[in-house]
Specification:
With 63 residues, the protein is mostly helical. It has one helix and no strands. The relative contact order is 0.06. Pfam families: YjfB_motility. This is YjfB family protein. It comes from Candidatus Acetatifactor stercoripullorum.
Length: 63
């Protein structure tokens, strides 16, 4: 049994797990920021709708 090789392999596995966790954390932060931006856009649209309730309610068509 190669103790040095085993130790190296355990260190590599540990590092891979830590990097994977860090990447997942960054992805979650990005998703949270995008979700917050989407909520802001929806709120802004709702606010404009409350200020101009007639906006978009009618369609003028000519044939």
């Amino acid at each position: 049994m190669d103790i040095a090789g085993l130790s190296t392999q355990m260190a590599v596995t540990s590092l891979q797990a830590k990097v994977g966790t860090a990447v997942l954390g960054k992805a979650m932060d990005t998703s949270e920021a995008l979700g917050a931006g989407l909520v802001e856009m929806i709120d802004a649209a709702a606010m404009e709708r409350s200020v101009y309730p007639e906006l978009g309610a009618n369609i003028d068509m000519r044939i």
